């Protein structure tokens, strides 16, 4: 149409020049040739694409493309790099959705419920290697065999054949130790494994030596002879496609020509397919430039023509557009639809075994994963929340007598925490200004007599009050140390007056009596507060770390697509990851609890079962959150940034290291909806108050955790589904 339109425009302007005439003649001739009916028996198509469009953002990659792969034949899809071949294959197998048009594969649209495409009817070899590097050849084929539901006997038989046919090394060889060519052959083997009805091979012969290349083509020719297997293959070696029954020449997202290789060469009077293709490209360019120059203003904007989708849509040669009858409405029984949606345990088991085998092959990494939480919780128990030790304080004591009160008082000061250094007034102040001491404690030379007067006389002068006081100058730059020094001084004074006054001590003591605590003990330290929240946080973030990269790497290596084409659904992928990581976090949690309760003697007044369930649920929430990151983000760096970026704000806002009550109000609402705020509180209530699920503060910790869990899992499944 575009060519006709261009022709009409030319006709109004005057006779076309001789080059244009030649182009048009060539075009007409080729059109007539390729529009000739196909030989009998080719009316059945394994694949039909009609007016298929697909864009990446504004880049229109497939442009009203029509293509038909006859049943039981080899179709060679040829075209320069970047013309859209891989995109088309991905649309055919259903890993990419088309923006417009229709595709039928073996009679039904891709991903049609119960059709097994994606599934065992199709063998797909993507352009990327899409192999697990830690697997052996045998593991690889066994994994795909499991997904396709082959018995181990069938898998073994096919494996032996493929190893022999593809000239592969021993089946116990690790994929990562194979050469590039060998790896590609293993990838081809995985596509051929289940004897699929449809083989979709994206450049299977790249990096393969000519002898094996010819062997592969020979095999393809053999398997299509039965008429039951169809093959679509892309290759950069145009000449090898002469062995195909039909070739399609693709450029700029549309098919320039489609037909048997001999016919294509004949009509271009070319001796090779490559020449024929070159000529087609030239003709296409001439038609394009002619169309450009015939636009009203002489400069047709190419992107505009792409946008309206009309000009570019028409193949310059007669590519047979399948009839409209293929707008078939396929109905499907609800049971089949339900089976299609429900996860298959076979696939989940295969994926879980895969993850466990990969873990087994990386024992160092697995041990590290098991030990990391134990190390982290040990560090927290050892280093956070305890009393500072060995704090140097300068003592300026102007009393010299050994029986002086000051000496007695200082003997009650806890020596493990406070290290006393006796100095002169000048040295002590120089030292504290130079940061050598955290405090200066001073006693006047009449401290003993003045303190006695303060204690016993009803009224005393200011001088006596001052002289009978212990003077303390603190370096308040470290609040914890300053608080500790103050606390130790109070304790020492209490012990001193108890010793000096015995039953009369009440006269100088603060009239506040702290009774036995209702919950916890008098000596509860900050570690006790931090540990439960820290345990949840460690479990959550290790689980995020375990999963955040899993899909990112698998997607990048084409493994997700390959599994998806083999019939694995997003939900199955998600559940398999969840279950296999559950194993890892279970071991982590057991080690962590042993360390916390038995080694560091953290108190637990409540149900250990509730404690374990809450920690496991937090781990599962971490896995689910990791799956969200993994499904939404494409590269490792961004996934790492997302996981790390969320770590600090969440830790600070969840009331783990400092009470939520300190958070100013608008921010506190945010804090309360985070996954670990109520959960940490619930864990503290179980462990230190011995509360159970009947208490709101406990059950709401579980409820919030479960809520986040469900939300993350659904979100991850939806994102993964939308992106495949
Ligand atoms: N995920 C993507 N996002 C954006 N653009 C993409 C994406 N994948 C492919 N493209 C672009 O789409 C165009 C077609 O790519 P495609 O991989 O289908 O080409 P191809 O014909 O298979 O090339 P080759 O033979 O080199 O593999 C290219 O311009 C490519 O840059």
Automatic annotation (TrEMBL):
SUPFAM superfamilies assigned: P-loop containing nucleoside triphosphate hydrolases
Keywords in alphabetical order: ATP-binding, Membrane, Nucleotide-binding, Transmembrane, Transmembrane helix
Chain ranges passing through the membrane: 529-553, 574-600, 606-630, 642-660, 697-720
Chain ranges of the ABC transporter domain: 47-277
Top-rank taxon: Eukaryota
GO cellular component: ATP-binding cassette (ABC) transporter complex
Name of the protein: ABC transporter domain-containing protein
Organism: Astatotilapia calliptera (Eastern happy)
């Amino acid at each position: 149409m575009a060519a006709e339109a261009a022709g009409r425009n030319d006709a109004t302007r005057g006779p076309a020049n001789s080059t244009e005439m030649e182009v048009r003649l060539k075009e007409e001739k080729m059109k007539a040739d390729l529009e000739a009916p196909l030989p009998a028996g080719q009316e059945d198509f394994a694949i039909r694409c009609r007016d298929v469009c697909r864009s990446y953002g504004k880049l229109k990659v497939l442009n009203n493309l029509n293509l038909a792969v006859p049943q039981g034949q080899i179709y060679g899809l040829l075209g320069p790099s970047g013309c859209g071949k891989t995109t088309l294959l991905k649309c055919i197998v259903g890993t990419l959705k088309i923006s417009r048009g229709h595709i039928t594969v073996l009679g039904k649209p891709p991903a049609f419920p119960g059709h097994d495409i994606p599934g065992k009817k199709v063998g797909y070899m993507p352009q990327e290697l899409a192999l697990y590097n830690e697997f052996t050849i045998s593991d690889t084929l066994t994994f795909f065999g499991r997904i396709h539901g082959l018995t181990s006997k069938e898998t073994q038989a096919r494996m032996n054949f493929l190893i022999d046919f593809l000239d592969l090394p021993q089946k116990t060889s690790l994929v990562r130790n194979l050469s590039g060519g060998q790896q590609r052959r293993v990838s081809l083997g995985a596509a051929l494994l289940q004897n699929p009805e449809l083989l979709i091979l994206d450049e299977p012969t790249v990096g393969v030596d000519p002898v094996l290349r010819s062997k592969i083509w020979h095999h393809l020719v053999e398997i299509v002879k039965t008429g039951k297997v169809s093959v679509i293959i892309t290759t950069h070696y145009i000449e090898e496609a002469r062995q195909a029954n039909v070739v399609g020449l693709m450029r700029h997202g549309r098919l320039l020509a489609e037909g048997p290789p001999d016919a294509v060469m004949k009509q271009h009077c070319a001796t090779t397919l490559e020449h024929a293709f070159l000529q087609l490209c030239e003709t296409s360019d001439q038609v394009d430039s002619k169309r450009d120059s015939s636009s009203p203003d002489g400069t047709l904007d190419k992107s505009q023509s792409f946008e309206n989708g009309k000009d570019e849509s028409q193949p310059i040669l007669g590519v047979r557009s399948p009839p409209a009858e293929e707008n078939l409405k396929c109905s499907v029984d609800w049971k089949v639809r339900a089976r299609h949606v429900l996860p298959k345990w076979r696939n989940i088991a295969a994926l879980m075994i895969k993850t466990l085998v990969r873990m087994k092959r990386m024992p160092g990494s697995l041990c590290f994963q098991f030990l990391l939480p134990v190390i982290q919780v040990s560090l927290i128990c050892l280093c956070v929340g305890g009393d500072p030790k060995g704090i140097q304080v300068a003592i300026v004591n102007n009393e010299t007598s050994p029986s002086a009160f000051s000496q007695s008082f200082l003997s009650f000061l806890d020596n493990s925490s406070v290290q006393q250094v006796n100095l002169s007034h000048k040295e002590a102040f120089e030292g504290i200004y130079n940061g050598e001491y955290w405090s200066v404690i001073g006693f006047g030379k009449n401290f003993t007599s003045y303190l006695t007067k303060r204690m016993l006389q009803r009224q005393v002068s200011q001088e006596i009050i001052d002289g009978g006081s212990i003077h303390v100058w603190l370096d308040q730059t470290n609040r914890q140390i300053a608080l500790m020094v103050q606390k130790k001084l109070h304790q020492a004074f209490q012990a001193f007056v108890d010793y000096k006054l015995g039953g009369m001590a009440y006269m100088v003591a603060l009239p506040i009596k702290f009774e036995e605590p209702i919950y916890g003990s008098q000596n509860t330290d900050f570690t006790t507060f931090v540990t439960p929240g820290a345990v949840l946080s460690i479990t959550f973030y290790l689980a995020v770390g375990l999963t955040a990269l899993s899909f990112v790497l698998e997607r990048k290596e084409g493994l997700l697509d390959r599994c998806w084409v083999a019939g694995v659904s997003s939900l199955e992928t998600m559940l398999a990851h969840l279950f296999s990581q559950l194993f890892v976090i279970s071991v982590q949690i057991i080690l962590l609890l042993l360390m916390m309760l038995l080694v560091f003697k953290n108190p637990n007044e409540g149900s250990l079962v509730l404690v374990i369930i809450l920690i496991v649920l937090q781990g599962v929430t971490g896995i689910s959150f990791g799956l969200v990151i993994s499904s939404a983000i494409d590269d490792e760096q961004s996934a790492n940034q997302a996981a790390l970026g969320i770590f600090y704000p969440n830790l600070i806002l969840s009331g783990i290291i400092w009470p939520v009550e300190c958070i100013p109000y608008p921010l506190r609402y945010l804090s309360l909806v985070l996954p670990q705020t109520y959960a940490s509180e619930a864990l503290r209530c179980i462990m230190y108050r011995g509360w159970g699920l009947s208490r709101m503060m406990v059950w709401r910790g579980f409820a919030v955790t479960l809520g986040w869990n469900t939300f993350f899992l659904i979100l991850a499944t939806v994102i993964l589904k939308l992106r495949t």
